[in-house]
Write a structure and sequence with these properties.
Elements (H helix, E strand, L loop, with lengths): L12 E4 L6 E2 L1 H14 L4 H8 L4 H8 L5 H18 L3 E2 L3 H7 L5 E4 L4 H11 L6 E3 L12 H10 L6 E5 L2 H9 L3 E4 L11 E2 L3 H13 L9
Parallel strand pairs: 1-4, 1-6, 4-5, 6-7, 7-8
Antiparallel strand pairs: 2-3
Helix pairs in contact: 1-2, 1-4, 2-3, 3-4, 5-9
Length: 223
């Protein structure tokens, strides 16, 4: 059961997805996959379409089944690392204001990417990095498994019912819900199935997220 976020006296925590939630990386991801596809002589649009809904190893199995998946992954990682060094990144409106308003030790990042890339992107956009960052290397089961969000909560010393998850993707929303947490969706034109609240943009959610973390009534649990 989700605790009432308006309940006083209990510390609340906010767990953020990164790409698509705090950082706008859509164009970067599209360019990386296009470059990867061209390297293997594949249709870039088709590869990107598959990559949007599958994990990299599953993508390789569908679009390049004759290729060594380890070689494919190494090439993808090379391109992603180069993009972090040279690409242009933008934080979504409200991200800097929001993260700066939260108390240290009350929020975390939970990403399917790798920590060094997240730190590189945050450095490029000026966003602060919290003490707790759960990345792809930190868990054996990624989203939509509940493990990543449960791992972040444990590292913060929080119970699931004290946590608010901010997500944009169906797999992340499912991960947060399966972890027993309140889940709010941002940066999508319509609500992802299962979210307790939906905001068209992160900026629209800033005030309510800060209120949730600060113990004020942010309207959590409302469908």
């Amino acid at each position: 059961m989700i605790d009432d976020p308006g309940r006083s006296g209990a510390t609340r925590y906010v767990l953020f997805d990164v790409d698509g939630t705090l950082i706008d990386a859509v164009d970067n991801q599209r360019l990386v996959w296009r470059t990867w596809a061209e390297r293997y002589g594949l249709d870039a649009d088709e590869v990107h379409r598959v990559a949007l809904r599958t994990r990299p190893m599953e993508t390789f199995a569908q679009v390049a089944p004759e290729r060594d998946p380890r070689e494919c992954l190494a090439a993808l990682h090379e391109l992603e690392d180069e993009d972090v060094r040279s690409g242009t990144y933008t934080a979504f409106a409200g991200a800097s204001e929001l993260l700066s308003a939260l108390q240290p030790g009350t929020w975390a990042l939970v990403t399917s990417n790798y920590e060094h890339r997240v730190r590189g992107r945050f450095a490029r956009t000026g966003l602060p990095v919290p003490d707790v960052l759960v990345d792809a290397a930190a868990v054996e089961e990624g989203k939509p498994s509940p493990v990543p969000y449960l791992r972040a909560a444990a590292r913060l010393g929080a119970r699931p019912e004290q946590c608010l998850v901010i997500e944009d993707a169906p797999s992340g929303v499912e991960s947060g819900l399966r972890a027993g947490m309140t889940v709010w969706g941002v940066n999508t034109p319509s609500a992802v199935d299962g979210v307790h609240r939906h905001f068209g943009t992160l900026h629209e959610a800033v005030r309510d997220i800060v209120a949730f973390a600060g113990g004020c009534d942010g309207g959590g649990g409302e469908r």
